[in-house]
Amino acid sequence: MLFVTIALLSGIAVGFLLKEKKTLPLIAGRVSTATIFILLFLLGLSIGKNSEVLNNLSTVGVQAAVLAAGGALGSAVFSFFIHKYFFVVETGEK
Amino acid sequence: MKNSIFICLVFVSGILIGMSSLIPAESIPKELVSSVLYVLIFTVGIEVGANTKVWRVVRTYHWKIALVPFSVIAGTFLGVGFLSVFLSGITLRHALAIGAGFGYYSLSSVIISQLDGEVLGVIALMTNLMREILTLLTAPWAVRVFGKLAPIASGGATSMDVTLPVITKVSGKEYAVISVFSGMILTLLVPILIPILLRG
């Protein structure tokens, strides 16, 4: 947890201080894509060896679908009220 | 989107190789995974820090713009928290941690499988991937029913990149900056909120 925060904050600081260097976000983007590939490959590898996950894939799928719908719908409903009561966008609508 | 398909292919090939036992599980040190994870979080920080456009948006819209990511956090937690009651084997804490991925399936699944285990990691991966796909598919409908912030909200952290083109199309160009801002704040919160929710 501490390392996560340190990694995140030092990343923001480096990005902010070197924001004039146009290539930096590009390099950072490439590196993050590469690390995502490595991490998901490794996660897949350990899942392939985990019979508990493989045997319950349909249950897991249903649980995931329910949670995905809950998160997306809950957010959309909340944003409806925020938009209605607080937001004035350039077009002049309230 | 092209990237998402490629990511899924990498993940699935990992599963297949894992099942075939070509590589023994013991050969992957846990420290390697966490070190790569820190590199990922560091680069996510760089991308956010270097994005000057977003910091300018805050000045234009004042504090009100913060209400957008706030509505995503509150709405997500209420939605998954409520539905977790009906799911056996998923505690409230687990559901909130999975929800705190806000659609960022790669990062959230890796953090959750590190902190809790592969089972919850896979649920986090599928939940957040489905959230991204759901946002892409339902965006035009969401705008009509819940207003122009709705696809930004349902996109969560993905509203800064993957779902941004669709959001701009259905909500309008003037919502693009709000979308990037909200996605960025939520992206930053993913690695912070998940450990707090799972361990706190």
Could you name the key traits of this structure?
A: mainly alpha, 4 helices, B: 0% strand
Written description of the protein model:
The complex is a heterodimer of chains A (94) and B (200). Chain A has 94 residues and is mainly alpha-helical. In chain A, 82% of the residues lie in helices and 0% in strands. Chain A is built from four helices and no strands. Chain A is flat, with a radius of gyration of 21 Å. The relative contact order of chain A is 0.04. The model of chain A has no long low-confidence stretch (mean pLDDT 86). Chain B is globular and about 55 Å long. The mean pLDDT of chain B is 89. Chain B is built from ten helices and no strands. Chains A and B meet through helix 1, helix 2, helix 3 and helix 4 of A and helix 1, helix 2, helix 4, helix 5 and helix 6 of B.
What is the global morphology of chain B?
globular
Structural classification of chain A: mainly alpha
Share in helix of chain B: over 70%
Low-confidence stretches of chain A: none
Number of helices, where a helix is a run of at least 4 consecutive DSSP H or I residues of chain A: 4
Brief account:
The complex is a heterodimer of chains A (94) and B (200). Chain A is an all-alpha fold and 94 residues long.
Give the topology, please.
The complex is a heterodimer of chains A (94) and B (200).
Chain A: H1 2-17, H2 23-48, H3 51-55, H4 57-86
Chain B: H1 2-20, H2 30-49, H3 52-61, H4 67-84, H5 92-99, H6 105-115, H7 118-146, H8 150-155, H9 164-171, H10 176-199
